[in-house]
Specification:
The complex is a heterotrimer of chains A (285), B (302) and C (255). Helices cover 76% and strands 0% of the residues of chain A. Chain A has 12 helices and no strands. The termini of chain A are far apart. Chain B has 302 residues and is mainly alpha-helical. Chain B has 2 domains: 17-95, no CATH class; 100-301, MetI-like (MetI-like fold), CATH 1.10.3720.10. The model of chain B has no long low-confidence stretch (mean pLDDT 82). With 255 residues, chain C is α/β, with parallel strands linked by helices. Chain C has 2 domains: 24-52 and 62-81 and 166-255, P-loop containing nucleotide triphosphate hydrolases (Rossmann fold, 3-Layer(aba) Sandwich); 91-164, no CATH class. Chain C is built from 9 helices and 10 strands. Classes of the chains: A mainly alpha (285), B mainly alpha (302), C alpha/beta (255). Chains A and B meet through helix 2, helix 3, helix 5, helix 6 and helix 7 of A and helix 3, helix 4, helix 5, helix 6 and helix 7 of B.
Chain lengths: 285, 302, 255
C-alpha cells in the first residue's frame, strides 16, 4: 500500500481541504519587506572612512586591554581597582547602585498614593481613568528626559534618584492597582469574625496577600534601575555614567572600557540574583 | 488611655515578638514555636542601606524645596546653576508658553526614530534566532560553543545601548546608522537571551522523535523545535520593538540620529526650551501608538 | 532480521543495563518485551536504532552492523528504516496533525524546504494515506496538541508508517493510556504488523496487554533475558521469574 501510493478519493478530498495560509503569509512578508525598505532609506550621510576604521580598531583593542591613563594621568589599572575613595570604578559603581536603590525605594513609596488614585474600586471610573493616564504619561517618558528636568531642581546623583523614582512608578503602581482591585475580601471577613483589630486585619489579612508579588516586582524594578542608573550620568545625573560621559568627550577609550568592565559584572550579578530570588518567590519555596 | 498605657508597658514584649514569635501552648501543654520571619531583618537591612544611599547620593529634600520654592528651611545656602530662580519660575519662564508650531520640525526626526527602531529590532531579532539555539544547553551539547555564545550575550546585554550608540557614532559619524546598529545589537542580545531561556523549557520529545526518523540535527530542530517557539519569538521581538522606540528617542542625545538629536539641542539652549513639550507630546503619541499595536499583536499570538 | 550477539550495554556512569544478550528476530514478528522498570527494556530497544550505542558484543540490523563506525549520514540513512513510538507520543505541539506526520519525511528533503515547511504533494498524499489507515484522517488539519491521548498515539503511529519502516520500536506505547484506548492502539499495532509485515518490538510494562497482542514475548530481569518464547506459553511461574515477585495490580492494565 505504501509503494506507488495512489491517492484514494477520500485522501484527495482531504487534501483539497488543506487550509491555505499563503495569503496571510504573503501579506505579512510584504509589510515587513516594505517597512525594511522604507527604514533603510533613512540611512544617509554615512561617514565611514579610514578614521572610522582606526577608531573601531582602538575601541576593540582598549575594550580588552585598557592600558591608558585617566585624564589626570593616573594609570587606568589603578583607577579600576584601587581608587576606593572618591572617583574610582568601585566607588562609582557603589554610587550607581545606591542611586538605583534609593530610586526604587522612593518609587515604591510614590506608587502607593498613585495606585489608590488609579484603582477602580476605590476612586470610581473617572478618577481612576485619570490616574491610569497619569501613570502612562510618566511611564512612557524616557528616564533621560526626567533626569534633565530634575537636574533643574536637584544636583547630580540626587537628580538621578528622583528620575529613577518617577520612572519606577509605572511598573510598581500597576502591581499595587491589581492588588488593591482584587484583594480577597473573604479573608477580611473571616478575620472580622474572629474579632481581629484593624491593625491585625491589615497585618494578617492584607499584607500577606501582597508581599510575594511586591517583593518580586521591587527586585525586578531594582534590576532595571541599576541598568538605567549606569547611563544617567550621561546627562549629568550622577553615577558611573558621569565619568563615562567625560571619557567619551575626551575620546579616552581605556577609561570608557574600565567603566564598562565595572558595569558588566555588577549588572550580571544583580540580574542573576534577581532572577533567582524571583523564581524562588513565585514558586513559593 | 488605658489601652495606650498597656501598649507602652508591653513595648519590650512587642519588639521581642517581632523577631522571635511567641510560643503558643495548645492543649495538653504542647508548645508550638511559629517559624521566625526574615521580614524584620530585611527591614533593618533596608534602613541600614538607605542611610548609606542617602549619603552617597547627597539626597536632600531641603535642597529640592529650596530650588522649587526658594525657601531655605535650614539656612543651608545651597549652590547651583538655577539659584537665581526657583524651579517653578524656571519651568514657566523657559518651557511656557509652549511653541505648538514646532510640530512641523518634529515629524521628520521622529520618523527617523521609528525607522531606526524598526530596522534595528528586525535585524537584531533575525540574528537572535539561530544564536538562541546555540546558547540553549538542551540543544547545543558542545560546551565550548555554548559557553562562548552565553558569554557574548551577557557582555552585549549588560553594556548600555547608549554606549553602543556612542561607539558607532565615532565610527560612522552622526546619522541614523549608529542608532540602528545600537538598537540591533541590543535587540539581538535581549531577544536571544529570552529565547534560549524559552527553548530550555520546551519538551524535547518531539525533537528526539524526528531525530529517530533519521533526520539531521538541523532539520530536527527546524521541524520539531521551531514551531513550538516561533510564537514566543514573534512576541519577544515585538516587545523588544516596544522598548526600542522608547530608547531610540534618547539615542540622538549622543548623535545617533532621530528625535534625541533635537531634544538635546533644545534642552540645552534656553531660548528653545519652549519647544520641549511639543516634542515630548509627539514622542508620547508615538510610544503609546506603537505600544498599543504591539500589545494587540502579542495578545493575538498568545 | 535483527541479530544480537553477546550484546552488552554499560552507561558512562558505570550502570550495567544489559549483559551478554543473544537474540534473533525475524522480519514481521510482533514482540513484546516485559520486565520491571529499570530491567533494561528501554535500553534494549534504543540500542537497535543507536539512540544509545552498544558497548559490548555485536548487533546487526538488516545486515547493517550497529557499532561506533555507524555515524553521520550512514546512521541517519539507517534510522530511516526504523520507526519509533514513545510513551509520551512526542508530537510537535502547536502544529497540525498532517505536519506532524509529514515530519517523518523531513530526512529526505533539503534543509531550506524543511525550514519553510515545504513538502511535495507526494509526501502529503503518503502522510494522509497513513492517517487514513489509522482512521484519523478527518483530524488532519486539527492541532496535534488538542487531541486525546489515544488519538495522539495514532498520529504518532501514522508518522512512523509515513516513514515507511521495516521495524517499529515502541517504548511503552500504551502506558499513559486508559485500558480501552490502550486496547485500540494495540489493535492498530497488530494491524500494521500483519498488513505491512513490519517487525514490531514493544516494551510493555503491562503483562496482560503484552500477552494478548504479541506473538513472542521476551522477559528481561536485571539486564538478562530470562524468557524468550511464544506468548501462549507464559504462565504465572514464569512471570514470577521475570518480575522477581508476585504480580501486582500495577502490572496489569485491565483488571
Amino acid at each position: 500500500m505504501k509503494k506507488n501510493m495512489k491517492a484514494t478519493a477520500i485522501v484527495n478530498e482531504t487534501l483539497s481541504r488543506e487550509p491555505n495560509h499563503v495569503l496571510i503569509k504573503v501579506i505579512v512578508v510584504s509589510i515587513l519587506v516594505a517597512l525594511s525598505y522604507w527604514s533603510i532609506s533613512s540611512i544617509t550621510d554615512v561617514n565611514f572612512n579610514e578614521n572610522g576604521v582606526r577608531v573601531a580598531r582602538n575601541v576593540i583593542r582598549y575594550f580588552f586591554w585598557p592600558d591608558g591613563t585617566t585624564d589626570q594621568g593616573e594609570p587606568i589599572v589603578l583607577f579600576f581597582f584601587l581608587t576606593l575613595e572618591s572617583h574610582g570604578v568601585p566607588y562609582l559603581m557603589y554610587e550607581t547602585i545606591m542611586i538605583a536603590f534609593l530610586g526604587t525605594l522612593f518609587g515604591a513609596v510614590l506608587a502607593v498614593p498613585i495606585a489608590f488614585l488609579a484603582s477602580k474600586n476605590i476612586t470610581g471610573t473617572y478618577v481612576s481613568g485619570f490616574g491610569i493616564t497619569l501613570i502612562t504619561l510618566i511611564r512612557t517618558m524616557p528616564v533621560f528626559v526626567w533626569a534633565m528636568f530634575f537636574l533643574t531642581i536637584a544636583s547630580g546623583a540626587f537628580a538621578g534618584v528622583l528620575a529613577i523614582s518617577v520612572t519606577s512608578i509605572g511598573m510598581i503602581s500597576k502591581l499595587f492597582i491589581e492588588a488593591i482591585e482584587d484583594i480577597d475580601k473573604g479573608i477580611l471577613e473571616a478575620l472580622d469574625s474572629t474579632g481581629a483589630t484593624t491593625l491585625q486585619k491589615i497585618r494578617y489579612g492584607i499584607i500577606p496577600q501582597l508581599t510575594a508579588n511586591f517583593l518580586s516586582t521591587i527586585i525586578y524594578r531594582f534590576e532595571i534601575n541599576v541598568k538605567n542608573a549606569t547611563i544617567l550620568g550621561l546627562v549629568g545625573a550622577g553615577g558611573i555614567g558621569t565619568t563615562m560621559m567625560g571619557a567619551i568627550g575626551s575620546f579616552n577609550f581605556s577609561l570608557v572600557a574600565v567603566c564598562l568592565w565595572g558595569i558588566i559584572p555588577v549588572v550580571f550579578v544583580i540580574e542573576f540574583f534577581s532572577t533567582k530570588i524571583r523564581t524562588k518567590i513565585t514558586t513559593g519555596e | 488611655m488605658e489601652k495606650l498605657k498597656d501598649y507602652v508597658k508591653n513595648i519590650g514584649k512587642y519588639i521581642k515578638g517581632i523577631f522571635i514569635p511567641e510560643q503558643i501552648i495548645i492543649q495538653d501543654g504542647i508548645v508550638v514555636s511559629p517559624p521566625r520571619s526574615v521580614a524584620p531583618y530585611v527591614v533593618i537591612a533596608f534602613v541600614f542601606v538607605s542611610y548609606f544611599a542617602i549619603q552617597a547620593t547627597e539626597f536632600s529634600i531641603f535642597e529640592v524645596i529650596y530650588k522649587l520654592f526658594g525657601i531655605d528651611i535650614l539656612n543651608n545656602h545651597f549652590e547651583g546653576p538655577w539659584r537665581a530662580m526657583t524651579g517653578w519660575e524656571y519651568l514657566s519662564r523657559y518651557f511656557f508658553p509652549i511653541d505648538y508650531g514646532y510640530w512641523r520640525e518634529v515629524i521628520s526626526p521622529l520618523v527617523d526614530t521609528i525607522q531606526m527602531s524598526f530596522l534595528g529590532s528586525f535585524i537584531g531579532s533575525a540574528i537572535a534566532l539561530p544564536v538562541a539555539f546555540l546558547a540553549s544547553s538542551n540543544i547545543n551539547k558542545n560546551k565550548f560553543t555554548l559557553t562562548s555564545a552565553r558569554a557574548v550575550l551577557t557582555i552585549f546585554r549588560t553594556i548600555p545601548m547608549i554606549i553602543y550608540a556612542v561607539i558607532f557614532v565615532w565610527v560612522f559619524g552622526k546619522n541614523v546608522l549608529p542608532g540602528t546598529m545600537a538598537i540591533g545589537l541590543f535587540t539581538f542580545s535581549i531577544v536571544a537571551k529570552m529565547l534560549f531561556e524559552k527553548i530550555e523549557t520546551i519538551d524535547l520529545g518531539s525533537y528526539e522523535a524526528i531525530e529517530s526518523t533519521g533526520a539531521s540535527k538541523g532539520k530536527s530542530i527546524v521541524t520539531a523545535v521551531l514551531p513550538q517557539i516561533l510564537p514566543s519569538f514573534y512576541s519577544m521581538s515585538l516587545y523588544a520593538f516596544e522598548i526600542n522606540v522608547r530608547y531610540a528617542a534618547i539615542l540622538g542625545y549622543v548623535g545617533a540620529g532621530g528625535i534625541g538629536l533635537i531634544l538635546q539641542s533644545n534642552m540645552a539652549d534656553l531660548d528653545l526650551t519652549n519647544r520641549v513639550f511639543t516634542m515630548l507630546f509627539f514622542i508620547w503619541i508615538v510610544v503609546i501608538s506603537i505600544e498599543t499595536i504591539s500589545r494587540f499583536l502579542r495578545r493575538r499570538l498568545a | 532480521m535483527i541479530l544480537f550477539e553477546k550484546v552488552g550495554k554499560t552507561y558512562p556512569d558505570g550502570t550495567v543495563a544489559l549483559k551478554k544478550v543473544d537474540l534473533k528476530i525475524e522480519q514481521g514478528e510482533f514482540i513484546a518485551i516485559i520486565g520491571l522498570s529499570g530491567a533494561g527494556k528501554s535500553t534494549l530497544i534504543r540500542l537497535i536504532n543507536k539512540m544509545h550505542p552498544v558497548t559490548d558484543g555485536k548487533l546487526t540490523v538488516n545486515g547493517t552492523v550497529v557499532d561506533d563506525s555507524l555515524v553521520g549520514k550512514d546512521l541517519r540513512k539507517f534510522r530511516r528504516g526504523i520507526g519509533m513510538i514513545f510513551q509520551s507520543f512526542n508530537l510537535i505541539g502547536r502544529t497540525s496533525v498532517l505536519k506532524n506526520v509529514l515530519a517523518a519525511r523531513v530526512a529526505d528533503i533539503p534543509f531550506f524546504k524543511a525550514l519553510l515547511g515545504l513538502y511535495s504533494k507526494e509526501d502529503k498524499i503518503a502522510s494522509l494515506n497513513a492517517l487514513e489507515q489509522l482512521g484519523i484522517l478527518e483530524k488532519a488539519y486539527n492541532r496535534a496538541d488538542k487531541l486525546s491521548g489515544g488519538q495522539m498515539q495514532r498520529v504518532a503511529l501514522a508518522r512512523t508508517i509515513a516513514q515507511d519502516p521495516k521495524i517499529i520500536l515502541a517504548d511503552e506505547p500504551v502506558a499513559s493510556l486508559d485500558p480501552i484506548t490502550a486496547t485500540q492502539v494495540m489493535r492498530d499495532f497488530e494491524k500494521i504488523n500483519k498488513e505491512l509485515n513490519i517487525t514490531i518490538l514493544a516494551n510493555m510494562h503491562h503483562v496482560d496487554m503484552a500477552l494478548k497482542f504479541a506473538t513472542r514475548v521476551i522477559g528481561i530481569n536485571d539486564g538478562e533475558i530470562v524468557y524468550d518464547g511464544p506468548a501462549s506459553a507464559v504462565d504465572n511461574a514464569l512471570l514470577k521469574k521475570v518480575y522477581g515477585r508476585e504480580l501486582t495490580d500495577d502490572d496489569i492494565m485491565d483488571n
